[in-house]
Amino acid sequence: MKRLLACSFARRLFKPRTQHSTHFQESKDSMEKSPIITANNNFDSQSSKENGKEIGSDAATNIVLNHEFSDGLNSWQPNCCDAFVVPASSGYHKGLTTEEGCCYAVVTNRKECWQGLEQDITSGVSAGLTYTVSACVGASGTFQGSVDVLATLKLVYQNSETNYLFIAKKSASKECWEILEGLFSLSTMPDQVIFYLEGPPAGADLLIKSVVITCPSSTACDSSGTSSVSTDDDNIIVNPQFDDGLNSWSGRGCKVVSHDSMADGKITPMSGKYFASATERTQTWNGIQQDITGRVKRKLAYEVTAVVRIYGNNVTNADLRGTLYVKAADNRERYIGIASVQATDKDWVKLQGKFLINDSPSQVVVFLEGPPPGTDILLNNCVIKHASKAPPPSPPVIEDAAFGVNIVTNTSLNDGTNGWFPLGNCTMSVQTGSPHIMPPMARDSLGAHEPLSGRYILVTNRTQNWMGPAQMITDKVKLYLTYQVSAWVKIGQASGPQSVNVALGVDGQWVNGGQIEISDDRWHEIGGSFRIEKQAAKVMVYIQGPAAGVDLMVAGLQIFPVDRRARFRHLKRQTAKIRKRDVMLKFSGSDSGSLHGTFIRVRQLQNSFPFGSAISRTNMDNEDFSAFFVKNFNWAVFGNELKWYWTEAQQGNFNYKDADELLDFCTKNNIQVRGHCIFWEVVGTVQAWVQSLNKNDLMTAVQNRLTGLLTRYKGKFEHYDVNNEMMHGSFYQDRLGKEIRVNMFKTARQLDPSPILFVNDYHVEDGSDTRSSPEKYIEHILDLQEHGAPVGGIGIQGHIDSPVGPIVCSALDKLGILGLPIWFTEVDVSSGNEYIRADDLEVMLREAYAHPAVEGIMLWGFWELFMSRPNAHLVNAEGDINEAGKRYLALKHEWLSHSHGHIDEQGQFSFSGFHGSYEVEVITVSKKITKKFVVDKDDGALLISIDL
């Protein structure tokens, strides 16, 4: 331990380990001021092999990001020294052999033994769990023999001294790689946990090939601060196959009957001997139910499987739903949709879904509902059990991606229409006179490109709107690749605007590859994207859309896979220009003359850019959800709790309790909040009592809604979405006239002058919807402003599939001309493959963060089972961070600036950093001084004077 202590005391920060205790007072004060930490330096890994060829266990997830340095130093930071990554083939250190294709980190210019390479692993560890560390390390330099390499944790507690926890030590030489192994456990959770490798004497280079930190002691070891409660696989449904008659089952507003057969023996059980029917149903919510109170546990994900069908009332098929009724301890009631299935009167079908309860309710009832009144619901059996953990996902294997290569045959039409065929009995011919330049969005992806041929396909004699040129591309499309679609299109003489669509027929299913509305005789760019994630037997691309009789012209159709990594490199450079600022720290004080050469370290505490998420009242009952949200987001929006149908579901009966509690939670945690939304223009979202009002009463109700909401929360919300989705709905405008939209904005401004008033809509950024194209959105905003509406912000929701950077950026560029702040307000991306989902999310976050007009990004949730779209979550139901969540955290980490060095002769230190809050440490021989400062947004350099 002598070397360890010498190293640690050199920091002047070492604090001895306390004795381990099996219990302690779980107060915030004791957790921060009396940390209990343990480490085992004699861990013997059975899964590691010599020379680092295999480290760690596949049974647990590695919480270290970029653990083999395949992405350079991303997620790693040198600790007061320099570092870089070299490939194995470089021969940089000839004494160490490494497999071809591998790389390793070199930590150099080390002036102290404690200097090394570090990574913040706070989000990956939890208190009370044991973690194994296995690192492949080496050393290089002028030393003789071997040197010690140490694995250490830095534990930062708010309002308390920093602690250092020794994990393990290994002697390393210049001749071979060594495996450093150890264990650690945290009895309390610090505010920050930083893992780093250190130890060799000053001047020696530390070499790191890989680092693995796993949690084999618990399969529920996760990154959100929770571990799953173990449970058996028992079905919590009593009498699931009706072997005991109708015991534990009852009717929900109807009668329930047990059967061994029905309909003169035509209906028999799919399995077992019996089934039950819910009959004499007079409401859609009537059905069969079972009370499962006490058998369902909070924060556990349950999977539901039921075998169902329908019978009677001449209904052959109907939507059948599984629903959960939950009554909270304070008597609040809510209904949770579990799953739905299209049931028939011909066969039994499976209804499958999942649910999770955040609180400890006083009553939980599961029931079936949905078919029209008079139709019986039949249930053969029902199973509800703890959802099994999905196996660890694997990234998709894509060979020979051929980024940027067009998969369309004869796109230049040099060979006439060879490769093309007419869809329907229309007529195709090749003409000349189309643009020679590549459409702008494709050019942004492809870069310099040969001019187009100027030839185009003319389609005439179109008797249906779906008729147009088509081509089979089945064998050319690869799974999981994101394809960009681009073409020039034009229409013949037509009466009124016409829609043109590049479509994909994937085994008979329509997939949107891009859509545009044309109302003149000019050539227009059409752009879009698609991705196929399941093997298809037939894939056809075709161009369709204008009304029958309208001629269609298509030129230069390009369909090519996009190279997202190349785009990301461009965005990183753009981000540095937009989101960073040059900073000069000017030091002064009584002993400022002796500061020259003094070592300083600058660390960014928080990026000031708004990264937010939707939350709901029930989420706050799950402390793991709340902890993850507060730690990783600085803005919030309420999913439903502020909407009119929630605050006044029945006329005159107001429910602001949920919104009040959410707002209080956000205020206590210094989270800023968007108000979503005052009104929602889509008719299907307007509650029945509002729809039933006559014009005068509706106008009164609208005014009462504005007055009640904005006076109650005056000054509490930073933004309001005034009338949501006006590009896709017109309920209030149809009933009250066009001026009502302007009046909503004007009245909101009068009642509460402080918030920015937003428009908010979807499919603005993806080229897939003619109703909300950037051009139409601009016209809509200008029209509102010209009539006096104080529109102050542009909301782009961001519910997107297979995003392509240049297409998103093109929309932002167009909207940016209005000079209003743009926010992505409801971002979610959906893919069953977590790695593809992570890539999609990275596209959206990088495009938004790199664009100067974007001033905030809100996710539409992040926790499984609490999002509007499936396969869009970042955190699994029981708290495990998936690949998309890890990518989000990695980007958040990338967008924090850290710097270190020495004060120059003028008493200054300069760096470039992201906007936000910072801490600077000045380390002298006798003391360490810490100061905080803020780098705000501005074009010029920032001079900050620091008095020591």
Description:
With 948 residues, the protein is an alpha+beta fold. Among the domains are: 77-214, Galactose-binding domain-like (Jelly Rolls); 250-386, Jelly Rolls (Sandwich); 421-562, Galactose-binding domain-like (Jelly Rolls, Sandwich). Helices cover 17% and strands 35% of the residues. It is built from 15 helices and 47 strands. The chain has an eight-stranded parallel barrel with strand order 34-35-36-37-38-39-41-42, surrounded by five helices. Strands 1-9-6-11-4-3 form a six-stranded antiparallel beta sheet, with no helix packed on it. The longest helix has 18 residues, at 695-712. It is globular, with a radius of gyration of 31 Å. The model is unreliable at 1-59 and 217-231 (pLDDT under 50).
Instruction: Using the 3D structure, state the CATH architecture of the domain at 421-562.
Output: Sandwich
What oligomeric assembly is this protein in?
single chain
Could you estimate the helical fraction of the residues in percent?
10-25%
Q: What's the story with the biggest beta sheet?
A: 8 strands, parallel, barrel
Keywords:
about 950 residues; 47 strands; Jelly Rolls; eight-stranded parallel β-barrel; alpha+beta; single chain
Write the layout of secondary structure elements.
Elements: H1 2-11, H2 28-33, E1 37-40, E2 77-78, E3 82-87, E4 103-108, E5 117-120, E6 130-140, E7 147-156, E8 163-172, E9 178-186, E10 192-198, E11 205-214, E12 250-252, E13 255-259, E14 275-279, E15 287-291, E16 301-311, E17 317-327, E18 333-344, E19 349-356, E20 363-369, E21 376-386, E22 421-423, E23 427-432, H3 440-446, E24 455-460, E25 468-472, E26 483-491, E27 498-506, E28 509-518, E29 524-530, E30 539-544, E31 552-561, H4 564-579, E32 580-588, E33 599-607, E34 611-615, H5 623-632, E35 635-638, H6 644-647, H7 657-668, E36 672-680, H8 688-691, H9 695-712, E37 719-724, H10 731-736, H11 739-751, E38 756-761, H12 774-786, E39 793-796, E40 799-800, H13 805-816, E41 822-829, H14 834-849, E42 854-859, H15 883-894, E43 898-902, E44 908-914, E45 916-923, E46 928-935, E47 942-947
Parallel strand pairs: 32-47, 34-35, 34-42, 35-36, 36-37, 37-38, 38-39, 39-41, 40-41, 41-42
Antiparallel strand pairs: 1-9, 2-5, 3-4, 4-11, 5-10, 6-9, 6-11, 7-8, 7-10, 12-15, 13-14, 14-21, 15-20, 16-19, 16-21, 17-18, 17-20, 22-25, 23-24, 24-31, 25-30, 26-29, 26-31, 27-28, 27-30, 32-44, 33-43, 33-45, 45-46
Helix pairs in contact: 3-13, 4-14, 9-11, 12-13, 14-15
